[in-house]
Amino acid sequence: MQVLKKSSLKVILFLFFSTTIGAQEFYFAGAGAALELDNNLIGANARLFYGINETFCFGPEISFFPYQDTEDGYEENIIDLNINAHYIYEVSHKLGIYPLSGINYTIEKMRLIEDNNESETENEFGINYGFGLHYIVNNFYVFAEFKGVVGQLSGEFITAGAVFYLDKPNKKSKEEH
User: Fold this and answer.
1) Which N-terminal residues, if any, form the signal peptide (predicted)?
2) What is the pLDDT of residues 32-78, one digit of tens each?
3) Are the beta carbons of 165 and 28 closer than 8 angstroms?
4) Is there a contact between 144 and 158 (Cβ–Cβ < 8 Å)?
5) For a disulfide at 169, which of 2, 76, 154, 173, Cβ 3.0-4.6 Å?
């Protein structure tokens, strides 16, 4: 059994390094609008991602939904902190689709509209799942994503925005991406 574990680890390391050696690494940042689907809250999203190669990237992102009216005289505020990973499948030289997975930490606050001084706060970890697509326009991407969160504070979100390179990959990698 120990030999099987060591062999499996070697295969995983080989596959990981074989996809990253010689690949163009890059950083990119983006922002967009976010929609929380349970209560139709509108917010903003910001992200900073690291691309190991043309197909795999990961990084932190934050979505902020300021206090907004929900039902029964309450207002809700959400801060959604995530670390997500994308594995990009290129459909064409400009269009890519990707599954999304990661971890989440959500902070939700609820308060009565008539009594803004008292609020109830919940904080929980969760697991992210979802999918997205991006389209290359000149030197940036436009993207749209669906993300679900599984956990004590489950939720579903749609985000759309733009992503810009902070350090541009070489021309060959950009054309392939």
Assistant:
1) 1-23
2) 999 999 999 999 999 999 999 888 999 999 999 999 988 778 899 99
3) yes
4) yes
5) 173
Q: Sign of the CA dihedral 115, 116, 121, 127?
A: positive
**Torsion angle defined by CA atoms of residues 48, 52, 53 and 59, in that order, rounded to the nearest 10 degrees:** -30
What single DSSP character describes residue 126? Answer: E
- What distance in Å separates the CA atoms of residue 157 and residue 175, rounded to the nearest whole number? 31
Instruction: Tell me which amino acid residue 47 is.
Output: R
User: Cβ(59)–Cβ(49) under 8 Å?
Assistant: yes
Q: Measured between alpha carbons, how far is 100 from 129 in angstroms, rounded to an integer?
A: 5
Instruction: Report which residue type is found at 68.
Output: Q
CA angle 155, 157, 158 (to 5 degrees): 165
pTM attached to this predicted model: 0.77
| 21: DSSP letter | T
3-class DSSP state for residue 46? strand
What does the block give as tokens for 161? 């925005």
- Listing DSSP states for 138-157 in one string gives TTEEEEEEEEEEEETT-EEE
Q: Which residue has the tokens 């950083």?
A: 27
41, HSE (Cβ side, Cα atoms, 13 Å): 28
